[in-house]
Amino acid sequence: GENELPVGAYSMSHAAGFGFLYQLTGDKKYADLGKECFEWALAGVRDRDREGRYSFRDPDGALRAGPSLGWYAAGYDLCYDGWDEAYRLKIARAIAEYNEGQYESLEELAAGKRHMPASNHWGMQVGGAALALLAVRDDPGVDNNRIEKLLNISEKSMIRNLTEGFGDHGWFPEGDGTGIMSSNIAFLPALQAWQIAGGKDFISPRPNAPWMTLKWIMLTVTRDGKPDFPIRGAYPQNVWDRDGPSGGGVFCQGFAAVNPEEKSALLWLYNHVAKAEDQKAGAPFDTIGPYPHRAILAFINWPFDLKPANPKGILPSAVGDEKYGVYMFRNGWKDENDIVVSVQTRNTRGWHKADTEGQVWVWGLGKKNAWGNLKGNVTFFQPAVDGSGILSIENGTSLAVDFSGASGADAMLVMSGRGAAKEKRIKAGKTEYSVLFLTAGQEPNIEIRGDRLKVGNQTVSLREGHLALSRFKLSP
Fold this sequence. Notes:
By secondary structure, the protein is α+β, with helices and mostly antiparallel strands. The chain has 13 helices and 19 strands. The protein has helices spanning 14-25, 28-42, 62-79, 85-96, 106-111, 120-136, 144-165, 176-184, 187-197, 208-219, 263-273, 275-280, 292-301; strands at 221-223, 226-228, 318-321, 326-330, 340-344, 348-349, 353-354, 358-364, 367-374, 378-383, 389-393, 398-402, 411-416, 425-428, 431-438, 446-449, 452-455, 458-463, 466-469. The strands form five sheets. A six-stranded antiparallel β-sheet has the order 10-11-12-13-15-14, with no helix packed on it. Strands 3-4-5-8-9 form a five-stranded antiparallel β-sheet, with no helix packed on it. Strands 16-17-18-19 form a four-stranded antiparallel β-sheet, with no helix packed on it. A hairpin with a 5-residue loop joins strand 10 and strand 11 (389-393). The model has no long low-confidence stretch (mean pLDDT 95).
């Protein structure tokens, strides 16, 4: 595991941690400890990571170079006032002239020369470079014309990761475990740094920026105080791995990566899936990992004056990532019996791929079903206020998710067309429907009314190739 070494073992963000203590206390001994970290960094001492992948000198590829450089640069920035001028100049140059071989120079990292935005390597490169550039900007000892040119490149790279990498509602083409690498290790903190130190807000104009974090609220179900998530794609081990470098920081940095009105929903999720574990470990506020930068981010970003609020009504309960064809429906945020329906309608890929296309995953009331096949380009999506929704694809297959309770069940799913589930098929007139109920009680009766189905107070029909529900309140 990541934690074979004890907490406190040297890491890429120890210089930042000591710099932070210097900022809080004004005690120069912490700036001196930061300096010691930099001497280790320049001598090639590697990070605590079990495979030694992160390091200022000779990191393991461009994807580790980015965060290593970025978090050391944060350390330089925090220690700056506690160092003498000669040492400031020395480290400013080491950052500004960073070049550890092909793809690992500051220029190449800022431009994301290795791979492309749809690769998990990319956000780590461009995010780390942005942190470094913003840290040395306008400082003595650097060629500021060059830094400004690189900041222009960085700005374009940040937008490219948001438009070519992540979809419009947070889906990453390689999947969930790789997506968290591309967002959390350096990119989301770089978005925040750009906002504060660079005066550029990349978050509020684009829904996909907050949705890198909001998707964890949308799809996570709490079971026995732990998060459970319908993982798709590569590196599933990273999802909710809160103490490693790849999977942590959802909350401590997520609070700065969502819009203000969404923070209380993220706090609600923290209280439900992580608070008890953190308190037990003596690591409050999402500081359970051994990396000091997480504690810095928690201190800066935690909404101490905010009350948690149930995500219902703050987040839409039915939402689609239309760029990549991933759709999510949820009946509420209460407990382990919450019902979450998700489907990836087509395979997506970066370097790795997420290939669960067509599989409608129905999680609810303690059961996990894969039901029917909705594979292809989406032709129709209609979300409802309560998380219900209608989704159709080009081959004529249509799915209705009904959380209204009108049927008499907690959830009723209906499918028609070529990809409809084989189970529980009912013919009404010329239309064949497949039906799935999720209910704690007895399943309701289905009545055939011509070419329609009547279930309790709900009526299901097929109109112009799309399923329709008589009780259905459209999202505004």
